[in-house]
Amino acid sequence: MDKGRLEAFSDGVIAVIITIMVLALKVPAGGNLSDLRSVGPVFCSYVLSFIFVAVYWNNHHHLLQAATRISGGVLWANLHLLFWLSFAPFGTAWIGAHPTEPWPNAVYGILLLLDAVAYTILARALIKVGGKKSILAHSIGSDFKGNLSLVIYLAAIPLAFFHTWMSGVCWVIVAFLWLVPDRRIERVLQSETIEDDGVGG
User: Fold this and answer.
1) Which of 43, 99, 105, 190 could form a disulfide with 160 if both were Cys (CB 3.0 to 4.6 A apart)?
2) Cα separation of 122 and 185, whole Å?
3) What pLDDT score does 36 carry?
4) pTM of the model
C-alpha cells in the first residue's frame, strides 16, 4: 500500500492543529507592553504545545521515511495518533487559561501521555509490517528515550494535584529531550546507502 496519501493527510491534519492553537492567542486588551502579561500563560502553553506537535511531525516523517510499506493496521494506528494530537488545541487553551489549577494540568499531561502511547503503537505497527529485521526495527531498537518519556508523563499527571509546577517541569524535560531531532533512523538510512554504494562500486 502506498504511503504517500498517508503522509499528505497527516501533514494536513497537523497543519490544522497548529493553526487552531495559534488562533487561541488573543490580542491584549490594551496597547502597552504591560498588557502582554495577560496573554503570557496562553503564549507559554502554545509554545510548549507547538514544540510537542513539531516533534511528532518530525519523527512521523522519519518513521515513514524508513518504512517500506504500510497496511490497513498502520492506517488505523496513524489515525489513532492524529486523533489524540487533535486534542492539542483544547488542552493548550485550557491550561493556558488556568495554569495553576490541577485538573487542566492533569488533563494536559494525560493528552501528552496518550500522544506518546499512540506514536509507540504506530511505530510498532510499522515494524510489524516491515519485519524485525527492517531498517525501522533496527533504528528504533529498545527505544530508551521513548520509554523514558512515558515514565515522565506518568509521573507528571499525579504531580498536578500536589505540586502543579512540577508537572510543568516534567513536560519541559521531555520537550528538551526530544527538541533535538531523533536521528537514529537517519543514521541507519545513511549507513544503508553507504553500504549499497560500496557494493555497487
Assistant:
1) 105
2) 15
3) 76
4) 0.85
Q: What is the dihedral of CA 26, 30, 32, 35, to 10 degrees?
A: -50
CB 77 within 8 A of CB 121: yes
The residue among 57, 106, 45 whose CA lies nearest residue 81 is: 57
Phi, psi for 165 (deg, rounded to 5): -65, -25
Q: Which three cell numbers stand for residue 196?
A: 549499497
* Run of H or E including 107: helix 102-130
CB 55 within 8 A of CB 176: no
28-81 residue pLDDT tens: 777 777 777 778 888 899 999 999 999 999 889 888 887 778 888 999 999 999
Write out the DSSP string of 64-80: HHH-S---HHHHHHHHH
The answer to whether 172 and 48 are in contact (CB under 8 A) is yes
- Among candidate residues 113, 121, 99, the one with its CA nearest the CA of residue 165: 99
Return the ∠ at Cα 180 (arms to 174 and 185), rounded to 5°. Answer: 105
Name the stretches of the chain with pLDDT < 70.
Answer: 1, 141-142, 180-201
